[in-house]
Amino acid sequence: MPDKRIGIVGSGIAGLMCGQLLKDAGHSVFLVDKGRRAGGRMSTRNKRPWQWDHGAQYFTVRDQRFAPYIEALNEKGVVSEWFDLFPGQALGKKEARYIGVNGMNVIPKHLSSGLEIHQSMNVEKLDYENATWQLMMESGEVFSCQELVLTPPLPQVVNLLEGSNLLNQIADSKRLASVNYEKGLSLMLVLEKPSQIPMPGCLKLENELVSWIADNSKKDGFSDEYCITVHASPKYADATWNEQNSVVANAMIESIQPLLGSKIVDWHIHRWLYAFAKNPLKTAFYREANMQLTIAGDAFISSRVESAALSGISAAESLIQSFK
Ligand SMILES: Cc1cc2nc3c(=O)[nH]c(=O)nc-3n(C[C@H](O)[C@H](O)[C@H](O)COP(=O)(O)OP(=O)(O)OC[C@H]3O[C@@H](n4cnc5c(N)ncnc54)[C@H](O)[C@@H]3O)c2cc1C
Fold first, then answer.
1. Is residue 27 lining ligand 1, measured as CB closer than 6 Å?
2. 293: helix, strand or coil
3. E strands present in 152-300
4. Is the fold of 5-57+102-179+281-323 the same as that of 181-277?
5. Ligand 1 centroid vs 80 CA: distance in angstroms?
6. Widest CA span in the chain
């Protein structure tokens, strides 16, 4: 099947893993993504000399199919272990939590190597006719392929298919449309002095407003600047979606003041319309064989980096098998 071209929408971890495996198996692949950089929610905000991981904070490796990729990245110095126990956690709960060295985004950057990726390309509409997919970009450009893999958060996939009058051709469209995502909000702070966050430099909180706080200076490869990432609880992110940034920042800062213990030099907010899938589907990916369409990403199995990667891997393995 050497002539088939495979298009992947999304250069997050799911799209990248899928693309790498298909390329390694000798297939012709391209990726398009509306973001400026590859990585999706595995993102690092840079405002030199300041730097924050503001999406995914760490990831686990529980599945033996994911482990070899992370071992290889570890050997190359792209990935390292951050910690294996939260403060106060029982020893029996030990589990390695991995990060990208010098920022989570170095992982997708590394995985992009050798792939044909077109960033800043927003797919506005799809067309499927005569066994060929056409991807219409906001810029007016058009990409064609015979196999299509969609990896954005599932509600965005459903909207795209619906807006292209294709959702009614998907057998399981109701199940796909049933997946909902929680909103997210990341507050990035710069402190004047070191924070009071205990080692390893992060805490899960059960505060009404804040669910997570992390000191980026405690991570491998980050500078000693006091850059703190604070995540709003999903409930607070949702309730304050249209609220002024300064109001939200002040309320969140007040609720975690003892953990900061310092004057704030600068702050930024990033909002995530689709942060985590609330009710992921139980299969690793979805395939509509009659339309040469595959859907993957973190809406399958569980909304985590490892699951998204495994969804991309499983989708690629199934496609490679079907081409034989
Ligand atoms: C604040 C936050 C904290 C998190 N913390 C953790 C954590 O600590 N540990 C963990 O394991 N997971 C965490 N997660 C979840 C994890 O980041 C995701 O599960 C995983 O990164 C999803 O990867 P993906 O490839 O499925 O999707 P994404 O990374 O979202 O990639 C999808 C890509 O599709 C692109 N796209 C969307 N629509 C279009 C379009 N129309 N045209 C072109 N491109 C398009 C997007 O730009 C994006 O790059 C966190 C997520 C958030 C938001």
1. no
2. strand
3. 181-191, 202-204, 210-215, 227-232, 264-277, 286-288, 293-295
4. no
5. 20
6. 63
Task: Give how far Cα 88 sits from Cα of 53, 83, 91, 93, 228, Å.
Answer: 24, 13, 9, 10, 21
Domain boundaries, given as residue ranges, for the chain: 5-57+102-179+281-323, 181-277
Architecture of domain 5-57+102-179+281-323: 3-Layer(bba) Sandwich (3.50)
Ligand 1 centroid to Cα of residue 1, in Å, is 31
Q: What is the pLDDT of residues 216-225, one digit of tens each?
A: 999 999 989 9
Residue 108 beta carbon below 6 angstroms from any ligand 1 atom: no
Measured by CA distance, the residue closest to atom 41 of ligand 1 is 123
Query: In this predicted model, what pLDDT tens digit does every residue of 269-307 receive, in sequence order?
Result: 999 999 999 999 999 999 999 999 999 999 999 999 999
Q: Which of 41, 104, 138, 142 to mutate to test the pocket of ligand 1 (most atoms within 8 A of CB)?
A: 41
Instruction: Give distance in angstroms: CA of 56 to centre of ligand 1.
Output: 8
Q: Is 298 in the pocket of ligand 1 (CB under 6 A)?
A: yes
112-149 pLDDT per residue, tens: 999 999 999 999 999 999 999 999 999 999 999 999 99
Overall CATH class of domain 181-277 = alpha beta
Q: How far is CA 119 from the centre of its chain?
A: 15
Kindly report whether the peptide bond that precedes residue 49 is cis, defined as omega within 30 degrees of 0.
yes
- For ligand 1, the distance from its centroid to the CA atom of residue 277, given in whole angstroms, is 10
Q: For residue 166, report the distance from its CA to the centre of ligand 1, in Å.
A: 24
